[in-house]
């Protein structure tokens, strides 16, 4: 007996709203005045968003996060795709060792590299720069591993046919491998973007200039804003948090089709 589609739809809607309830409550809170919030009342206002953008410089923080996360995603997915292609399609001395070392990096906590990265960039004079925020994050072992496994599922006969037509390895990569791996690449690009977008520790350590603060640093500073009597201006914090999650939500919506397709193809394989 087939299940009732209306019942499944209603159940999915209720569960979805349950999971989204903290986010929806945060958005609702962001439109309240601080006095109304602590009084348990409702008073609609856009002042929290206006203050976050103008008074607390969130427009600049948003621009910095977009620049850093965007460049990290672009450079990181390019390097990961090229590394995955090399590991999946070529046999060379030390290849297995290098791939094992790449996988081993997944077991190393990121905080261990914090001090070495800081000292290296300090000697290179790259602290308090966009380069200092971007360079340590462009290598991603998980993305290289994931894409390598995906590329191995693409028939090698396609490569061989291209080589017979005179294509170079790079041309095979960009004309055959990349288009066929688009769902996996889109999934990993979103993963890299979200990871860098939510990064807090490294920007906190590597940047001292307020003009280079990312959204996460700016959001943490809002907890110091005090409306009086030791209270936290939670509506202002929630407005800033809503600004923070919007680009990630937009990125997910843009690659949702590729993301679902990549998961489906991976399950079939």
Task: Give a topology summary.
Blueprint (H helix, E strand, L loop, with lengths): L4 H26 L3 H6 L7 H9 L2 H32 L5 H10 L9 H11 L5 H5 L6 H11 L4 H9 L4 H12 L1 H16 L3 H6 L8 H7 L12 H35 L1
Short précis:
This protein has helices at about 5-30, 35-40, 45-55, 60-90, 95-105, 115-125, 130-135, 140-150, 155-165, 170-180, 180-195, 200-205, 215-220, 235-269. The chain has about 270 residues and is mostly helical.
CATH fold descriptor: MetI-like fold
* Anisotropy-based shape: globular
Gap from first CA to last CA: 29 Å
CATH superfamily: MetI-like
How many domain modules? Answer: 1
3D structure, described in words:
With about 270 residues, this protein is an all-alpha fold. It has a single domain, classed as Orthogonal Bundle (MetI-like fold). It contains 14 helices and no strands. It is globular.
Which key features would you list for this structure?
269 residues; mainly alpha; MetI-like fold; 0% strand; globular
């Amino acid at each position: 007996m087939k299940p009732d589609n209306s019942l499944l739809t209603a159940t999915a809607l209720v569960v979805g709203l349950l999971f989204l309830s903290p986010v929806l409550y945060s958005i609702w809170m962001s439109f309240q005045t601080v006095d109304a919030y602590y009084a348990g009342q409702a008073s609609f206002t856009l002042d929290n968003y206006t203050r976050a953008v103008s008074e607390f410089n969130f427009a600049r923080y948003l621009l910095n996060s977009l620049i850093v996360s965007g460049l990290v995603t672009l450079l990181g997915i390019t390097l990961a795709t090229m590394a995955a292609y090399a590991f999946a399609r070529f046999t060379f001395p030390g290849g297995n060792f290098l791939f094992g070392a790449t996988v081993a990096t997944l077991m190393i906590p990121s905080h261990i590299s914090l001090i070495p990265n800081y000292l290296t960039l300090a000697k290179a004079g790259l602290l308090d720069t966009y380069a200092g925020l971007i360079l340590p994050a462009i290598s991603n072992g998980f993305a290289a591993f994931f894409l390598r496994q995906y590329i191995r599922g693409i028939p090698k006969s396609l490569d061989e046919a291209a080589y017979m037509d005179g294509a170079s390895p790079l041309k095979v990569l960009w004309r055959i491998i990349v288009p066929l791996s688009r769902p996996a690449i889109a999934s990993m690009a979103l993963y890299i973007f979200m990871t860098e977008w939510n990064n807090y520790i490294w920007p906190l350590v590597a940047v001292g200039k307020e003009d280079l603060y990312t959204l996460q640093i700016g959001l943490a500073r809002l907890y110091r804003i005090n409306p009086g009597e030791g209270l936290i201006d939670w509506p202002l914090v929630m407005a800033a948090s809503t600004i923070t999650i919007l680009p990630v939500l937009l990125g997910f919506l843009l690659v949702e089709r590729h993301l679902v397709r990549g998961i489906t193809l991976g399950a079939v394989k």
